[in-house]
Queue: 2 jobs
Job 1
Amino acid sequence: MSEDIKYTLNVQSVINPLAKEKGETNFVLVSNGTADFDRVISEMMAVNPGLERETIEMVVKLEHRIIQKLTMNGMRVSNGLFSAVATSKGKGGSTWDPKVNELNISITQGNSWRDAIRDTTVNVIGYKSDVMYITTITNAATRATNGTATQGRPLKVEGSYLKVVGSDPSVGIYFIDSEGEETQVTEDFWSVNQPKTLSFVVPAGLENGVYTLRITTQYSGKNNTYVRTPRTVERTVYVGVEPTLGQAILSGRDGSTGAVDSTATRGGEYILGGNGIMLLGADGESGGALKLQSETGIPETIKAIATNTADMVIFTIPNDLAEGKYTLTIETYYSPEGVRENPITLTAPFELTLV
């Protein structure tokens, strides 16, 4: 399977301030983000979709546990990908003093990683100083930096090469909804327009929802000189709603029949899979709310929860619910970063038919 995997890294040139010769540069890698545990499991399932997610998670967690056990009992672990060993630091003596002594894990690349490095394609994509990017978005209404925005209140965007200038029709600041409809922030609502900082008022007429913030400019970094082709940077922003941080219900399976994303047996267990779907209350201890909403009735809150984790929720469907189609939602304060200040609602991407 490994021979089918393509490895590609991008690098940029940056000025080396410690170099003896003026203008000397180094390469720095361009990050593509962070892959957490859920992302790794999802990638594994994409390679081998025939395996159950819970089975893969169990095996990976068991490997983590055994590697930790072996290293913390004085063994060097070499699994082909890397070699890991516990090391000590600090002054010696007759006793171990945590104030001056500490333990660390040293990890070095193994043969598999070295082989992948040799097979990696590296693209040079220019000088970092010429790259337009966003580092931080701050909601002036809440001081939050989690990508939220409030209608009618200022939004501060920090980064590089953000100054909005140029005569191209595409130049400007836009909010784009899920349907692709654009709402432009006109210049009279800008308060700061600098290369590293923009500040503007979020349009008051935007409906609550998830938007793409698009900033397009011909700024070149030099006065009175514009780049011919406009540059654009985009970020996801959450207007009037809490960010989901990748949380989503991804699949459902009837525990009685095995049917996927379709029918569910009343009185039987139903298994939900997803990212960050744990039912959690505002206190960080109690459960959130899992509801089934029929086309005509009021929502039914499910109370019989057998399993409640970040990537799996198993519950029993009430036997007295009427047959028919239902929408399944989870309301939770859970996030991968901790307990939210406000809940989010996750809706299953499929309709559930009770039989």
Note: The domain at 2-126 is CATH 4.10.520.10 (HU Protein; Chain A).
Job 2
Amino acid sequence: MSLLKMKVTNGAINAVLFIVVIILCLLAGEALIRTFNLQTGAPGWPQENARFVPELKKNVYPHLQNLTKSTSEYNYQISTNDNGFRDVHDFEKKKGVYRVVGIGSSAMFGNTVNVDKTYLSVLGEKLNAETINLGLGGSGFGEIKFILQEYGLQYDPDLLIIDASQGSFYASYLFEKKSVQPGKKSLYLKAYEQSKLLSFLYWRIKTTPLGFSMINFFGLNRHAQNSNAFDIDLLSNKNTEAVTISKKAVFKNIQEIKEIADDNNVPVVFIFIPAPHHLNQDQLDKIIQEYNLDPTTFDISVPPQFYKAVAEKLSIPFFDPTEALKMHPDSKNLQWKYDGHFNENGNAIYAALLAEFLRDNNIVDNKEQNS
């Protein structure tokens, strides 16, 4: 055998051995994670609890009991009811109780904080009211409308609060494009859902500087990449097909939500959840630099201005605390650096501003509330 052939053969053998060792290490890691239940703190969702809801076009996760989610930034627990919501109340309302039903996305759900620290729970304390949390992560206005009709009205609300964010546009677009049947999943997503090890590693490194960069570099979070591309078009005032579909869907569903609330004599308030770049100029500058955007045409006020215009047209009270939060002494420490959601402090300050808005606009009156 020639020297060249021997080198090629040895190289091939070493490559195969390397792959085998990697596979064995992954299998050993998977066994270790499962045996000692080390994945408990990973923020992924347990697939054994998953239930696909055709009308929502996505999974919900009912019957969770103190599921711990933990990263380098936060640690919190989640419990859900029979319908997958982070709430424990019965549909029947006790006499004399003033009940606020909140419907929205991950901010309403309270990602990264315990349920008693969500802005909706803190709001209830400030208003002496009972709050019902019907938030589900990733929900657009199509999902919100269904949740209101299917669940929200059964709670006999005295006030309905709907949260809206920049992300609500992309979520509403996805809802319009999704099938009522579960879509095909990528090989990576299937592996992530089935492997406790991959879930454990992904969430352990995601909220670290190096891990955050690696995930973006290798494109492991395709949803975030697609969402970012959509948001850039939205904030650059580009009327792409996706942006146009989204805006039409947002207006149509908000209009129908208002009609449903009016038909049931329930006052409704829309509230805006600002993203980190709405509050932090450094975050905005980073985005502009990373995507090589023109700061003269990149307009982060597009989402709140759109919601404000719709709210005025439909006579809906609209709460946008962006400027007040920007002026707060702790404005740069209200949201997690990598996750982006409100931390406990951010939720508390947001709730205080919202309570003030509701009182100043005579939407609530504490003298009539007795929970």
Note: The longest helix spans residues 3-35.
